[in-house]
Design goal:
Number of strands of chain B: 17
CATH class of chain A: Alpha Beta
Largest sheet of chain B: 7 strands, mixed
Distance between the termini of chain B: 42 Å
Number of strands of chain A: 6
CATH topology of the largest domain in chain B: Aldehyde Ferredoxin Oxidoreductase,  A, domain 1
Oligomer: heterodimer
Strand order of the largest sheet of chain A: 1-6
Low-confidence stretches of chain B: 1-14
Radius of gyration of chain A: 15 Å
Strand content of chain A: 15-25%
Largest interface: A-B, 24 and 30 residues
Distance between the termini of chain A: 21 Å
CATH architecture of chain A: 2-Layer Sandwich
CATH class of the largest domain in chain B: Alpha Beta
Order of helices and strands of chain A: EHEEHEEHHE
Strand content of chain B: 5-15%
CATH architecture of the largest domain in chain B: 4-Layer Sandwich
Largest sheet of chain A: 2 strands, antiparallel
Helix content of chain A: 10-25%
CATH superfamily of the largest domain in chain B: Aldehyde ferredoxin oxidoreductase, N-terminal domain
Number of helices of chain B: 29
Number of domains of chain A: 1
Number of domains of chain B: 3
Shape of chain B: globular
Radius of gyration of chain B: 24 Å
CATH topology of chain A: Alpha-Beta Plaits
Chain lengths: 140, 746
């Protein structure tokens, strides 16, 4: 299963970069010039450290989706079928990582699919796509 | 909330791992059944979506004359009745006269989703209300139900479906909300039972596999034809399981009317559902409010009610622990074998790791499903089926109240009630009555035609149900319900009339639902002071009163019996489910000024209604909207010859100990009451004297409660809304209402 990972030892949470990862995601994936609508977020914390909010493709959202609109693709990433989505946002409310998101302009939510565009954009090479075992679906 | 029995307490029980996609299929012969259909009427319409919650038209259908027409929803209807139960009551009022009987053609079945019904973001937003003149109570009944039919009706273009008339041959009504086509078809070949019929019709009317989610079927079953306790199943297609699921409009015998009208099924094919189809004024507020509740359910449900795991069955052991679980026809409140049907059993037996909402976006997901149930009796013996539930009411009514503590038999009883189209709550209470009559010699094997109706005899319990479905034997008598069985047994001279009346748990002709109100004065009123009969959806105060001790004074109880019936009426006006209101609560709810009301959730509902219609409403507006419909329904009851104090009388079993064994089972409680409340010394009294004194005290106390509640509701002491009250509510614009209350001293 493809999973986006970050090395917080390399990422400096925007202190010496322009959040290229978020920018690339917003522009190249969602065609939006607004990094707040990216499918990953890097926050600079007051103590000087950073926090990354990333989707680990855990699959909780697959379990709770009432429309069966979330499924794993061939590479194990959880992908939303916009045609099937009924816009209930259960996936957003049940995402423990807080990374299933919505854009008020759209009816359907959006999420990271481990595409790797952000990996290429990161000037510090802090992001990588790794291959990990797919976890079992949980009872939620 | 209280703690739950955990798996650790009963480590021997193993999780039931079954393949939830496997079950017996019923599609053989589908093409022949379809070919046997004869189209009697075709009618076209222009599909439309609601705007601000309303499509502003309703659909009228007469299955006798085949007349089909649209009616405009007037501003007055919206202002006075909102939708849902309100629209249902209004249409029924106009359709029938004081002389109408339930089986007259003019009786109607009205199915109405409310203005918010169909939104996908807020849990519990897919309900329909079904209204008709009940064969059991002979007054209007309202029953709320999930499943997809209501929202898909709304998204096809109609705020209500009003069905009148009576057909001669079995009919299917098909409404295609994608194509704008309505067809009435003679349908002679399909079986009646819902788990078969809904599966066949979902396949028959879907244009392809993907289209099955857009189909919903309303059906009943074989037992609805031969009893007065028929219910309606509303289906939806469960994509993960690959089968239809059913939710029930259970109470009051609406399925009996459905079959009496010779309707085999209503089938709707709606458009593909999206997240904004009600077209609210402010979609953003609804989205944010919905996400907030999803998050609350994620974090709090696992430490509160576990609704996502067990559904409403989570309270079985809690009710037992507080001596409130109806056991052996409401004689007792607990049983040593309750662990066999406790929530952890259903946690294991129901399929987890899937979704169970009866409408999109209901993340409370309490419509649990037990898969891989292999039936042991009846026409489907050996079939592998999925059973919806059991909910608490079913586990208590079909289980402890009848002494059945075998979970597999309980599932089978639940299954057959559903597929035969009879109400589980009603059947549970009437079967418990039959079993107690058997225990006390009022019935015996000869009188039941060979059925041994002893406590816990699930096989003969099922045999009685199969008889009901076949319209034969003692099962047919049982299907008349408790009120009519009481009259029959008394007329036959089969036992002491006073005892039979004391133990027959019905009020207004409707069987009690499954809470022991004997030790909760508030719940006694919550049951018997209802409009439709003793169903807990109007006032479920037992938890507040007995478990959480939140209604200590007489005034508290009377106030609760004013506020909560109005609050709960409001859910039925808009198309909401009540459960997400108080089966999960915000973490800080206990710190609020009125924790019983769950203020944050009340505000959520008000915010969503304001966002839907664009008109900001307050909790005072909410009470006023509900009070209009509530008082209208009370006056409707009076119009039908009921609805007075006389009809709010409760059977003594619901108020106190009828028998010596019951008295002795709680002797400390009763003797303390005699000492502290009645002011007598029980040590100087015989058992009979103590029971008589307890009875007098409890009946007097109930009557005082009735006085207080009527006064608080703005009714006379005979239970009639006063003219001042109906003027205050603006109901005096309907002259007939004024005449009725005047004629009854209001």
């Amino acid at each position: 299963m493809r999973q986006l990972r970050i090395d917080m030892g390399k990422c400096d949470a925007g202190r010496t970069c322009q959040h290229e990862c978020e920018e690339a995601c917003a522009i190249k994936v969602f065609k939006l010039d607004s990094p707040e609508h990216a499918a990953l977020h890097i926050r600079e914390l007051a103590d000087g450290t950073g926090q990354a909010i990333l989707c680990d493709q855990c699959g909780d959202c697959v379990v709770v989706c009432p429309a069966d609109a979330l499924r794993r693709n061939k590479m194990g990433a959880v992908v939303l079928d916009k045609e099937l989505c009924v816009g209930c946002y259960t996936c957003i409310g049940f995402c423990e990582k807080g990374i299933f998101e919505r854009n008020p302009e759209w009816l359907v939510p959006f999420k990271c699919i481990s595409c790797g565009i952000c990996v290429k954009a990161c000037p510090h090479a802090a992001l990588e796509i790794v291959d990990v075992p797919q976890p079992e679906y949980r009872i939620i | 909330m209280s703690s739950h029995t955990t798996e650790t307490d009963y480590p021997k029980f193993q999780r039931c791992e079954v393949d939830f996609t496997q079950r017996t299929e019923y599609l053989d012969g589908l093409e022949a059944m379809k070919a046997a259909h004869k189209v009697l009427k075709e009618w076209t319409f222009k599909p439309s979506l609601p705007q601000q919650g309303y499509t502003n038209r309703t659909l009228y259908l007469n299955v006798g004359t085949l007349e089909v027409k649209e009616k405009a929803v007037t501003q007055q209807m919206k202002d006075m009745f909102i939708g849902g139960r309100g629209f249902g009551m209004w249409y029924l009022w106009n359709a029938i006269t004081p002389k109408t009987k339930w089986n007259d053609p003019e009786n109607e079945i009205i199915i109405t989703p409310g203005p918010i019904s169909g939104i996908t973001q807020y849990p519990g937003s897919g309900k329909s209300l079904v209204v008709a003149l009940s064969p059991e109570t002979e007054i209007p009944i309202d029953s709320n139900v999930g499943g997809y039919f209501g929202p898909l009706l709304k998204f096809s273009g109609y705020d209500s479906l009003e069905i009148q008339g009576k057909a001669e041959q079995d009919l299917i009504v098909f409404i295609d909300g994608q194509k704008g086509l309505l067809r009435i078809e003679e349908a002679p070949a399909e079986p009646l039972d819902s788990h078969v019929l809904a599966e066949i019709l979902t396949r028959m009317y879907a244009e392809n596999d993907a289209d099955r989610v857009n189909i919903s079927v309303v059906s009943s079953g074989a037992a609805a034809e031969h009893s007065l306790i028929g219910m309606l199943n509303f289906s939806w297609f469960d994509k993960r399981r690959g089968c239809i699921r059913l939710k029930q409009a259970g109470r009051g015998g609406i399925g009996t009317i459905f079959r009496n009208k010779k309707i085999k099924a209503l089938v709707i094919r709606g458009p593909e559902v999206k997240g904004d189809m009600n077209h609210p004024v402010d979609q953003e507020t609804i989205a944010k409010t919905g996400i907030k509740l999803h998050q609350e359910l994620r974090s709090n449900d696992p430490v509160q009610c576990l609704m996502r795991r067990n559904g409403t069955a989570h309270i079985i052991e809690i009710m037992d622990a507080y001596d409130l679980l109806p056991t052996h026809n409401f004689q007792y409140g607990s049983h040593p074998e309750v662990h066999k049907i406790a929530s952890y059993v259903w946690d294991q037996r129901c399929t987890q790791r899937t979704t169970d909402g009866c409408w999109y976006g209901c993340s409370m997901a309490c419509a649990k499903g037990a898969d891989g149930v292999v039936l042991q009796t009846g026409p489907y013996k050996g079939h592998r089926v999925t059973v919806d539930g059991p909910e608490y009411e079913n586990a208590a009514g079909l289980g402890s109240n009848c002494g059945v503590f075998d979970p597999e038999f309980l599932l089978e009883l639940n299954f057959y009630c559903d597929t035969y189209g009879i109400c589980t709550i009603t059947y549970g209470t009437l079967c418990a009555f039959v079993m107690e009559c058997y225990q006390r010699g009022i019935l015996n094997k000869e009188r039941t035609g060979g059925l041994e109706m002893t406590w816990g005899n699930a096989l003969d319990d099922l045999a009685m149900m199969h008889q009901m479905a076949q319209g034969e034997g003692f099962g047919k008598i049982a299907g008349l319900g408790v009120k009519r069985m009481k009259a029959l047994f008394i007329a036959n001279g089969w036992g002491d009339a006073a005892l039979i009346n004391d133990i027959g748990m019905e009020n207004k002709g409707l069987e009690y639902s499954q809470y022991m109100s004997k030790e909760s004065l508030a719940q006694q009123g919550g049951y018997a002071l209802t409009n439709k009969g003793p169903q807990h959806d109007e006032a479920w105060l037992i938890f507040m009163d007995m478990v959480n001790k939140q209604l200590p004074t007489f005034e508290d109880k009377a106030e609760a019996l004013y506020y909560f019936p109005l609050w709960r009426t409001w859910f039925g006006l808009y198309g909401w489910c009540k459960l997400p209101w108080n089966d999960v609560a915000p973490s800080d709810n206990a710190k609020t000024a009125e924790p019983t009301k769950i203020p944050e959730h009340v505000q959520n509902y008000l915010d969503i209604v304001s966002a839907m219609t664009g008109k900001k409403i307050t909790s005072e507006d909410m009470l006023r909207q509900s009070a209009r419909v509530y008082n209208f329904q009370r006056i409707f009851n009076i119009r039908m010859g009921k609805g007075l104090r006389l009809h709010d009388h409760a059977p003594y079993r619901s108020q106190g100990p009828v028998t010596k064994e019951e008295y002795e089972s709680r002797i400390e409680r009763y003797e303390k009451e005699l000492r502290d409340q009645v002011g007598v010394d029980p040590t100087t009294m015989s058992l009979e004297e103590k029971m008589a004194a307890t009875r007098k005290y409890r009946i007097d106390r109930y009557e005082k409660l009735v006085d207080a509640v009527y006064t608080r509701r703005g009714w006379t002491l005979d239970g009639v809304p006063t003219q001042a009250r109906i003027q205050e509510l603006g109901l005096d614009i309907f002259p007939e209402l004024v005449e009725i209350v005047k004629a009854h001293g209001g």
